[in-house]
Design goal:
three-stranded parallel sheet, 11 helices, alpha/beta, about 350 residues, about 40% helix
Length: about 350
């Protein structure tokens, strides 16, 4: 079965625990080691949209983004027998045929575009396949899900969406505010995506999408990926069953051809949860102080589903969906085939 993670990672999160928290801010040197690759292979992962470039912080968004693209190009070149940079549907299938993991370059903010939509051309030429319009706060394109005004897509945002369409780059509406999401869905001439989210009808938190947003994306032939994140329940401690429940609701709203997975996590599990909890306290406090946190982020939870992590996560999810009566064909669509079809529509062969 082809497994495509619409938003995830290829890193070993245990390595970050060996460094002071202050060093975590430098994501320009990703923790890609032999274990991370081996675990991704063991999980069955075929391709993954990784986050690179600027997300937040007091650094130059454009220059930092160019630097991280160069870093990932170097990682893939050094592991050319294991990884392949992909930005076409056939590229994903070709990587799989050569027993490589396809690596999709994606942004979780478009602040690095600045006020120049022409920068989209530079990013596309460097192989970026996915650009998320906003992170949690507002930026120059629109409001994120934590921005209080819910302004919607700005005039510059409309220009950027049009340029993304022209360059066949995926428009990702994860983290966006409700009106920004609806405006972008209406403005886009191409199918669009929400690569990692949950369903607000099941858990009323800003990081989750309303049925109206989900339906707007699906009606454009787009893609919705469900994450393995604490926002799936108000307690912040979702189980694997909650992930399956959100997938089932998304299928009910969007149809079985528009839903997949975007875990927002790695295939490598954290070995020492107690040590990680201490680090998490610092991280949550720092994100809140910086104004980039989201409602539902707490130090007494984890940013993943505890019983759906590690190399068995995708296999376990398949079993849970089968237990809910999902056919093997529907499960195959959710695990990767739907994203592949969406990629073919946006990127081309």
């Amino acid at each position: 079965m082809l497994i495509i993670n619409a938003l995830g990672g290829l890193e070993n999160p245990n390595l970050a625990l060996l460094r002071p928290y202050a060093d975590m801010a430098d994501a320009s040197a990703p923790d890609v080691d032999d274990r991370a690759i081996a675990d991704a292979r063991a999980s069955g992962l075929g391709a993954v949209n990784i986050t690179l470039g600027y997300v937040a912080g007091p650094i130059d968004p454009f220059e930092y983004t160019l630097a991280t693209i160069a870093t990932w190009d170097g990682i893939i070149a050094a592991r050319a027998d294991q990884l392949a940079k992909v930005n076409t549907a056939d590229g994903i299938l070709g990587a799989r045929a050569r027993d490589k993991i396809g690596v999709i370059y994606g942004f979780q903010n478009a602040a690095q575009v600045g006020d120049d939509p022409g920068r989209i051309d530079a990013f596309a030429d460097l192989g970026v396949g996915v650009i998320q319009l906003t992170y949690n706060p507002a930026n120059q394109l629109g409001d994120g899900c934590m921005a209080p005004d819910n302004r919607g897509l700005t005039s510059l945002g409309h220009e950027v969406v049009a340029r993304l369409n022209a360059r066949r780059v995926m428009v990702d509406l994860s983290h966006s505010g409700q009106q920004t999401c609806l405006d972008a869905a209406a403005a886009s001439s191409s199918p669009i995506s929400i690569n990692h989210t949950g369903c607000r009808a099941l858990c009323d938190l800003p990081r989750n999408k309303t049925d109206e947003e989900l339906r707007a994306v699906a009606e454009k032939g787009g893609f919705v990926g469900i994450y393995f994140m604490p926002f799936l329940t108000l307690s912040g401690r979702p189980s694997a069953e909650d992930v399956a429940r959100h997938i089932e609701h998304a299928v009910d709203v969007c149809g079985e051809d528009q839903v997949g997975i975007g875990t927002d996590g790695n295939a490598t599990a954290i070995d020492d949860l107690a040590a990680y909890r201490e680090r998490l306290e610092e991280e949550v406090a720092d994100r809140a102080m910086s104004g980039i946190g989201a409602k539902g982020e707490r130090a007494d939870t984890y940013p993943f589903v505890v019983d759906l992590r590690g190399v068995d996560q995708f296999h376990k999810l398949q079993s849970l969906l089968a237990a809910r009566g999902f056919s093997s064909g529907r499960i195959e669509k959710i695990m990767g085939a739907n994203f592949l079809s969406f990629a073919r529509e946006v990127w081309g062969a």
